[in-house]
Write a structure and sequence with these properties.
alpha+beta; 4 helices; about 180 residues; Umud Fragment, subunit A
Length: about 180
Amino acid sequence: MAKNKNELWEWIKALIIAVLLAALIRYFLFAPIVVDGLSMMPTLHDQDRMIVNKFSYKIGEPDRFDIVVFHAPENKDYIKRVIGLPGDTIEYRNDTLYVNGKAYEEPYLEEYKNQVIDGPLTDPFTLEEKIGRETVPEGHIFVMGDNRRFSKDSRHIGAVPIEEVLGKTNFIYWPVEDIRFIQ
Protein backbone atom coordinates (compact mmCIF):
# COMPACT_ATOMS: atom_id res chain seq x y z
CA MET A 1 0.00 0.00 0.00
CA ALA A 2 2.80 2.44 0.93
CA LYS A 3 4.60 1.58 -2.30
CA ASN A 4 1.51 2.50 -4.38
CA LYS A 5 1.16 5.86 -2.56
CA ASN A 6 4.85 6.58 -3.13
CA GLU A 7 4.59 5.74 -6.82
CA LEU A 8 1.44 7.84 -7.20
CA TRP A 9 3.17 10.78 -5.46
CA GLU A 10 6.18 10.46 -7.82
CA TRP A 11 3.88 10.53 -10.84
CA ILE A 12 2.05 13.62 -9.51
CA LYS A 13 5.36 15.42 -8.88
CA ALA A 14 6.62 14.54 -12.36
CA LEU A 15 3.37 15.80 -13.91
CA ILE A 16 3.49 19.08 -11.95
CA ILE A 17 7.12 19.67 -12.94
CA ALA A 18 6.32 18.95 -16.61
CA VAL A 19 3.39 21.38 -16.61
CA LEU A 20 5.47 24.11 -14.92
CA LEU A 21 8.34 23.63 -17.37
CA ALA A 22 5.97 23.76 -20.35
CA ALA A 23 4.37 26.96 -19.01
CA LEU A 24 7.76 28.60 -18.40
CA ILE A 25 9.04 27.65 -21.87
CA ARG A 26 5.86 28.91 -23.55
CA TYR A 27 5.74 32.17 -21.58
CA PHE A 28 9.42 33.13 -21.69
CA LEU A 29 11.07 31.28 -24.60
CA PHE A 30 8.91 29.82 -27.37
CA ALA A 31 5.22 29.94 -28.27
CA PRO A 32 3.14 28.68 -31.16
CA ILE A 33 1.32 31.14 -33.42
CA VAL A 34 -1.12 30.68 -36.30
CA VAL A 35 -0.88 33.01 -39.30
CA ASP A 36 -4.29 34.65 -39.68
CA GLY A 37 -4.82 36.18 -43.10
CA LEU A 38 -2.95 36.86 -46.32
CA SER A 39 -0.83 39.89 -45.39
CA MET A 40 2.46 37.95 -45.45
CA MET A 41 1.87 36.10 -48.73
CA PRO A 42 3.81 34.67 -50.54
CA THR A 43 6.24 34.08 -47.64
CA LEU A 44 3.58 32.87 -45.19
CA HIS A 45 0.16 31.43 -45.90
CA ASP A 46 -3.09 31.71 -44.00
CA GLN A 47 -3.21 29.12 -41.18
CA ASP A 48 0.53 28.33 -41.27
CA ARG A 49 1.62 27.36 -37.78
CA MET A 50 4.90 28.78 -36.54
CA ILE A 51 7.11 28.99 -33.47
CA VAL A 52 7.79 32.45 -31.99
CA ASN A 53 11.23 32.79 -30.41
CA LYS A 54 10.54 35.17 -27.50
CA PHE A 55 14.06 34.88 -26.13
CA SER A 56 15.60 36.58 -29.17
CA TYR A 57 14.10 39.97 -28.25
CA LYS A 58 14.87 39.86 -24.57
CA ILE A 59 18.52 40.53 -25.46
CA GLY A 60 18.28 43.18 -28.16
CA GLU A 61 16.49 44.93 -30.97
CA PRO A 62 15.16 43.17 -34.04
CA ASP A 63 17.26 43.06 -37.20
CA ARG A 64 16.10 44.49 -40.50
CA PHE A 65 13.96 41.98 -42.46
CA ASP A 66 13.24 39.78 -39.40
CA ILE A 67 9.70 38.47 -39.30
CA VAL A 68 8.26 39.43 -35.93
CA VAL A 69 5.07 38.97 -33.94
CA PHE A 70 3.82 41.98 -31.98
CA HIS A 71 0.78 43.27 -30.10
CA ALA A 72 -1.13 45.54 -32.48
CA PRO A 73 -3.40 48.40 -31.41
CA GLU A 74 -6.56 46.34 -32.10
CA ASN A 75 -5.70 43.90 -29.28
CA LYS A 76 -4.53 41.38 -31.85
CA ASP A 77 -1.11 39.94 -32.53
CA TYR A 78 0.26 40.77 -35.97
CA ILE A 79 3.04 39.06 -37.87
CA LYS A 80 5.06 41.36 -40.16
CA ARG A 81 8.54 42.00 -41.53
CA VAL A 82 10.85 44.61 -39.95
CA ILE A 83 11.70 47.24 -42.56
CA GLY A 84 12.96 50.13 -40.44
CA LEU A 85 14.95 50.30 -37.21
CA PRO A 86 15.18 53.24 -34.78
CA GLY A 87 16.72 56.27 -36.49
CA ASP A 88 16.19 54.96 -40.06
CA THR A 89 14.65 56.98 -42.87
CA ILE A 90 12.34 54.88 -45.05
CA GLU A 91 11.17 55.60 -48.57
CA TYR A 92 9.59 53.61 -51.38
CA ARG A 93 9.86 54.76 -54.97
CA ASN A 94 9.69 52.85 -58.24
CA ASP A 95 8.81 49.74 -56.21
CA THR A 96 12.21 49.88 -54.48
CA LEU A 97 12.88 50.19 -50.75
CA TYR A 98 15.33 52.89 -49.67
CA VAL A 99 16.63 52.86 -46.11
CA ASN A 100 18.79 55.83 -45.16
CA GLY A 101 19.07 56.65 -48.88
CA LYS A 102 20.40 53.19 -49.84
CA ALA A 103 18.37 50.89 -52.13
CA TYR A 104 17.64 47.41 -50.77
CA GLU A 105 16.57 44.34 -52.68
CA GLU A 106 13.68 42.37 -51.27
CA PRO A 107 13.90 38.92 -52.86
CA TYR A 108 10.90 37.67 -50.87
CA LEU A 109 8.72 40.04 -52.98
CA GLU A 110 9.90 38.96 -56.44
CA GLU A 111 7.08 36.42 -56.95
CA TYR A 112 4.42 39.11 -56.42
CA LYS A 113 6.30 41.85 -58.29
CA ASN A 114 6.39 39.61 -61.36
CA GLN A 115 2.60 39.10 -61.20
CA VAL A 116 1.63 42.77 -60.87
CA ILE A 117 0.59 44.41 -64.14
CA ASP A 118 -1.35 47.48 -62.94
CA GLY A 119 1.27 49.51 -61.11
CA PRO A 120 3.83 48.95 -58.38
CA LEU A 121 3.46 46.29 -55.71
CA THR A 122 4.31 48.89 -53.08
CA ASP A 123 2.91 52.38 -53.63
CA PRO A 124 5.49 55.14 -53.26
CA PHE A 125 5.72 56.80 -49.84
CA THR A 126 8.06 58.46 -47.40
CA LEU A 127 8.17 57.81 -43.69
CA GLU A 128 7.07 61.38 -43.02
CA GLU A 129 3.94 60.84 -45.13
CA LYS A 130 3.02 57.72 -43.16
CA ILE A 131 3.96 58.51 -39.55
CA GLY A 132 4.65 62.25 -39.60
CA ARG A 133 8.34 61.86 -38.79
CA GLU A 134 11.49 61.77 -40.90
CA THR A 135 12.98 58.82 -38.99
CA VAL A 136 11.73 55.79 -37.13
CA PRO A 137 11.42 56.92 -33.49
CA GLU A 138 13.82 55.57 -30.86
CA GLY A 139 12.42 52.41 -29.27
CA HIS A 140 10.24 51.66 -32.31
CA ILE A 141 10.36 49.68 -35.56
CA PHE A 142 8.62 50.13 -38.92
CA VAL A 143 7.01 46.91 -40.17
CA MET A 144 5.31 45.85 -43.39
CA GLY A 145 3.58 42.73 -44.64
CA ASP A 146 5.01 41.00 -47.70
CA ASN A 147 1.62 41.21 -49.45
CA ARG A 148 2.04 44.96 -49.75
CA ARG A 149 -1.30 45.75 -51.38
CA PHE A 150 -3.29 43.88 -48.72
CA SER A 151 -1.43 44.39 -45.47
CA LYS A 152 -2.36 46.49 -42.47
CA ASP A 153 1.05 47.48 -41.18
CA SER A 154 3.10 50.50 -40.05
CA ARG A 155 1.81 52.45 -43.05
CA HIS A 156 -1.58 52.33 -41.29
CA ILE A 157 -0.91 51.76 -37.59
CA GLY A 158 2.36 53.68 -37.26
CA ALA A 159 5.70 52.63 -35.86
CA VAL A 160 5.58 49.70 -33.43
CA PRO A 161 7.12 50.07 -29.95
CA ILE A 162 9.84 47.45 -29.50
CA GLU A 163 8.36 46.49 -26.11
CA GLU A 164 5.23 45.30 -28.00
CA VAL A 165 7.30 42.77 -29.99
CA LEU A 166 6.73 39.25 -28.69
CA GLY A 167 9.56 37.73 -30.68
CA LYS A 168 10.99 36.61 -33.98
CA THR A 169 9.56 33.78 -36.03
CA ASN A 170 11.20 31.90 -38.87
CA PHE A 171 10.07 28.28 -38.59
CA ILE A 172 6.84 26.85 -40.03
CA TYR A 173 5.94 23.51 -38.45
CA TRP A 174 2.48 22.94 -39.94
CA PRO A 175 1.16 21.96 -42.45
CA VAL A 176 3.65 19.14 -42.90
CA GLU A 177 4.26 19.85 -46.60
CA ASP A 178 5.31 23.43 -45.71
CA ILE A 179 7.74 22.64 -42.87
CA ARG A 180 10.71 24.96 -43.37
CA PHE A 181 12.81 27.83 -42.11
CA ILE A 182 11.97 31.12 -43.81
CA GLN A 183 14.01 34.20 -44.64
